[in-house]
UniProtKB/TrEMBL annotation:
Protein name: GIY-YIG catalytic domain protein
Boundaries of every GIY-YIG domain copy: 26-102
Domain of life: Bacteria
Gene3D superfamilies noted in UniProt: P-loop containing nucleotide triphosphate hydrolases
Organism: Microbacterium foliorum
Pfam families in UniProt: SLFN-g3_helicase
């Protein structure tokens, strides 16, 4: 029987409480230290001793005033570590409290009867929610950006190994003040590149500021929490560059809720290039989306691109990229890359990306992520999608319980997505950029609908920031620029007429049906020519991103009749 016991965060209350039950001094428990806006979650086998340590340490000055202790006669150390990790993630995703924990000790280990114990965690959650410590349900929390982008994650084995190796490499590089370095993390969609960047920034901040009582001795990162590393990191100036505006603002909200991180750490490449001082470390998410020299969304940004080039390099060269700015303004960079997610000509060129990867490998600063975290069908599904979009005929892999469906009728797919949203939330329609955005609310006289297929009339996303979580998003269609970098539970993907089969059965791009004006510019490495085959690669990448957004399932509708027949065969075997 699980019991949640309450006491004040004072020496007198802890001493009195310890005498009431032997389990208060010698039993595995999980506890919360709670204040009006701050909260700490811990686990221990000696609750009284641990509370006294907190009362003698920095937690006493953190505005914490009460304690909750979760006790169950069937708990053991493994259960408590797991419950502690769940509560930290849920509290972080709920957003009511700033979480004072470090992120180095979260566990996802296997143990006897784990799934049975995890059912009881939900009872603990609901009891704490009844006390007002949570404001939302578990599904609401787990569908939120605060949860998905939180630095409080139990990493996969290959993510944890990568983080450990990256910190090792960074500390070695930082120990030589005059050296510069570039580290590269490569991974397919859903392998957790964004999470690695966010996790690392929190971990480095924790190493910089740690007190001995906060260290999780069982953590694989505990070896980094030593005085010499704390001293080396004490003046570390770091930033996270995120090229996509919507994702950048979502991460800024997470940083606003996370102690030791600050939303002003999350920047554009322009802000790094224009900063008043250099950085020790710049992490770049979706590095492939950094710009070459191209026509920017506004005249002032075109001028700023030129001004930054002149300021940093003494001249405005067309060959300079935003990656050059970042390397010029920082001693060390961590670049997270998936070249197959480049979707516009002004993204960094494949040649530049391959050179960056090659150099990192030569310097033993290259790290590969392989475990699929987003799509429950696994890495084989991602490879299947990419091969199918290259015009190959890959066999359909074993998808387990992953819900992959093909639809001949858009109305039925739309209804299925609505049903899944009602069941599990976070289910949306998305499409290739094959229709003009005539319903854009910024137009003087916006038209009512953008996409009309099978008697269905649809609008593009009415906003371009945090569209997935906006009130009307279920009735709209998201473009690549609103969903790249995000997770969905179910994605209903409309493959538009911009991708089709020609008379010989070859997969081709249809330039007249591809409506992203910025996606057809002769710019950067394409300034001397941009062919239909070049466009095809970007369109294939767009659909590769869209078809790998759904964690639980992907539904597919295809406009071109010949391509529809082929993809139906790929997805259904008939």
């Amino acid at each position: 029987m699980t019991d949640i016991r309450h006491l004040a965060f004072t020496r007198e209350a802890v001493a009195t409480w310890a005498q009431a039950d032997a389990r208060h001094t010698n039993w595995p428990v999980v506890y919360l230290l709670v204040g009006s806006r701050k909260l700490y979650v811990g686990e221990t086998t000696s609750a009284q001793k641990r509370m006294r340590q907190h009362l003698d340490g920095p937690k006493r000055e953190a505005g914490l005033n009460s304690i909750r202790v979760v006790i169950d006669e069937k708990f053991n150390k493994s259960v408590c570590l797991d419950l502690e990790s769940h509560l930290i993630r849920w509290f972080s995703g709920d957003g009511q409290f700033s979480i004072l924990n470090g992120n180095d000790g979260l566990s996802d280990a296997q143990y006897y009867d784990r799934e049975l114990y995890r059912e009881s965690f939900r009872e603990v959650f609901e009891a704490l929610r009844a006390e007002g410590l949570f404001t939302r349900s578990i599904p609401q929390i787990e569908n939120s950006d605060l949860f998905k982008l939180s630095p409080f994650k139990a990493l996969t084995d290959d993510q944890a190994i990568a983080v450990s190796d990256i910190v090792d490499g960074l500390l070695e590089d930082l120990a030589h003040p005059h050296e510069r370095s570039t580290l590269v993390v490569q991974g397919d969609p859903g392998t957790g590149k964004t999470i690695i960047a966010i996790f690392l920034m929190k971990l480095l901040a924790d190493i910089r500021d740690y007190a001995a009582i906060d260290i999780e001795p069982d953590s694989m990162f505990s070896e980094f929490f030593v005085p010499e590393n704390r001293e080396m990191l004490k003046s570390l100036r770091m930033a996270l560059v995120i090229p996509q505006q919507s994702l950048r603002e979502s991460v800024q909200r997470v940083f606003r809720k996370t102690p030791k991180l600050d939303p002003e750490m999350v920047l554009t490449a322009f802000q790094v290039g224009d900063a008043d001082a250099d950085f020790d470390l710049v992490l770049v998410d979706e590095t492939h989306r950094l710009n070459q020299r191209s026509n920017q969304p506004s005249g002032p940004l075109n001028k700023k691109f030129s001004d930054i080039n002149v300021r940093l390099f003494g001249e405005d060269s067309l060959d300079r990229t935003q990656l050059d700015w970042i390397k010029a303004r920082s001693k060390h960079q961590l670049l997270l890359i998936d070249a197959a997610q480049s979707v516009r000509p002004h993204d960094l060129s494949p040649l530049t990306l391959s050179e960056v990867v090659r150099n990192a490998k030569d310097e033993h600063r290259h790290f590969r992520l392989t475990t699929q975290m987003r799509v429950h069908a696994g890495a084989d599904y991602v490879e299947f999608v990419r091969r199918m979009l290259r015009g190959e005929a890959p066999p359909l892999p074993d998808l387990g319980e992953y819900d992959l469906r093909f639809f001949d009728d858009l109305g039925k797919m739309r209804a299925a997505i609505r049903q899944k949203d009602a069941e599990v939330g976070l289910s949306r329609l998305v499409a290739g950029y094959a229709w003009d955005w005539v319903s854009n609310p910024k137009r003087s006289e916006p038209a009512e609908f953008d996409i009309e297929l099978d008697g269905e009339r649809l609008r593009w996303n009415s906003i371009d920031k945090d569209w997935i979580n906006s009130p009307g998003s279920l009735e709209e269609v998201g473009s690549i620029h609103t969903v790249q970098g995000y997770d969905l539970n179910y994605a209903g993907v409309i493959i538009g007429p911009d991708l089709r089969l020609d008379a010989s059965g070859r997969l081709v791009a249809s330039p007249e049906d591809y409506r992203d004006k910025m996606g057809k510019l002769r710019t950067g490495s394409f300034r001397h020519g941009f062919t239909d085959d070049d466009l095809l690669v970007f369109i294939q990448n767009v659909y590769g991103v869209l078809l790998t957004r759904g964690m639980l399932g992907t539904y597919v509708y295809v406009c071109d009749s010949a391509l529809r027949t082929r993809i139906r065969e790929h997805l259904t075997g008939s």
